[in-house]
């Protein structure tokens, strides 16, 4: 059994400090973004929405706890359960300082990466975004795995969340096509933790983060130890310090879950041959995504695509006109959004003909 151990000098202090924290009710760690730590009502609500959507009964927290017991990837020693292990690690981190605390934080992030990949072995773009499908079929996708990693790390006493990705480590751009967990280390730098990669601490070249009450397309500036030292906005404006940024809001995460439900609805936008019922399902979830967070530019754009597929040309054009300014305001316009606006502004070839 692989184990991510706490140094002996900290173990006694960790066990003593954990005390009553080794219970089903976690003590909240202050976060730079939303708090949805494992065991919290917020984490439970995210999972319950997924269970209700899929029609699954049970508790996702209980499933994760059982997965920890069977995965053979322990966090520390002398802890009989996932909650106990996370709470003991939180106590150990609280007792540590300086370079030793950063080392423990990185060790914990590595453990979360290993645990998620071991306990949820399959990757599925079609179904893996649903936490319920993690349980039903052992499948994960970038959003689900990032939320799980961040929730575990938050319970372990760390600051963590999730951000969108628009350029991968090779610099290949997408329209916010990926999600990754982000950790704010006690050193004040950020660290990405991506279970889609064989090693956790990847160097994605384009992220979407919160800053100044809005969302910004940024390019991370990495150090040799994989940490992010600062962020360069994609629009060329003033560089942002790590402290100027934060992960996606809870409403954005909720919106992104619904975005994927709309994108992957059976018979809908991206699942093969579209049907009227499937497109209506896509439209429903995309509209709900925008009601949860109106700054989700991807949901706004794809809703336009769905309306266009439904033959609702006027509504599609109006929706594209709403989506394009969101990208502009956030600092980067992907080619798909530019193409959609060009279609809106193209001359009507039928004008003037009887």
UniProtKB/TrEMBL annotation:
Q: Which domain of life is it from?
A: Bacteria
Signal peptide bounds? 1-23
Q: Which UniProt keywords apply?
A: Signal
Q: What is this protein called?
A: Transglutaminase-like domain-containing protein
Q: Which organism is it from?
A: Deinococcus ruber
Q: Read off the lineage from the record.
A: Bacteria, Thermotogati, Deinococcota, Deinococci, Deinococcales
């Amino acid at each position: 059994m692989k184990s991510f151990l706490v140094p002996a000098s900290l173990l006694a202090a960790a066990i003593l400090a954990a005390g009553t924290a080794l219970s089903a009710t976690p003590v909240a760690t202050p976060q730079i973004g939303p708090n949805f730590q494992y065991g919290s009502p917020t984490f439970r609500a995210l999972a319950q929405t997924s269970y209700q959507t899929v029609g699954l009964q049970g508790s996702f927290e209980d499933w994760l706890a059982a997965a920890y017991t069977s995965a053979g990837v322990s966090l520390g020693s002398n802890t009989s359960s996932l909650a106990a292990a996370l709470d003991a690690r939180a106590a150990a981190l609280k007792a540590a300082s300086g370079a030793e605390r950063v080392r423990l934080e990185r060790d914990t992030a590595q453990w979360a990466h290993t645990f998620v990949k071991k306990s949820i072995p399959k990757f599925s773009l079609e179904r893996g975004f649903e936490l319920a499908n993690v349980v039903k079929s052992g499948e994960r996708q970038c959003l689900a795995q990032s939320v799980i990693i961040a929730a575990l790390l938050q319970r372990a006493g760390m600051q963590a969340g999730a951000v969108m990705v628009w350029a991968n480590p090779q610099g290949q751009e997408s329209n916010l096509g990926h999600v990754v967990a982000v950790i704010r280390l006690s050193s004040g730098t950020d660290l990405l933790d991506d279970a889609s990669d064989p090693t956790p601490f990847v160097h994605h070249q384009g992220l979407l983060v919160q800053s100044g009450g809005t969302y910004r397309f940024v390019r991370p500036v990495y150090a040799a130890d994989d940490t992010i030292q600062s962020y360069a906005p994609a629009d060329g404006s003033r560089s942002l310090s790590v402290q100027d940024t934060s992960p996606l809001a809870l409403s954005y995460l909720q919106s992104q879950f619904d975005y994927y439900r709309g994108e992957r609805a059976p018979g809908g936008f991206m699942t093969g041959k579209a049907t009227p019922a499937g497109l209506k399902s896509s439209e429903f979830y995309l509209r709900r995504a925008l009601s949860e967070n109106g700054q989700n530019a991807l949901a706004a754009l794809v809703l336009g695509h769905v309306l266009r597929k439904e033959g609702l040309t006027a509504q599609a054009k109006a929706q594209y006109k709403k989506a394009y300014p969101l990208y502009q305001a956030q600092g980067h316009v992907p080619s798909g959004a530019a193409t959609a606006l060009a279609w809106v502004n193209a001359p009507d070839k039928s004008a003037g003909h009887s």
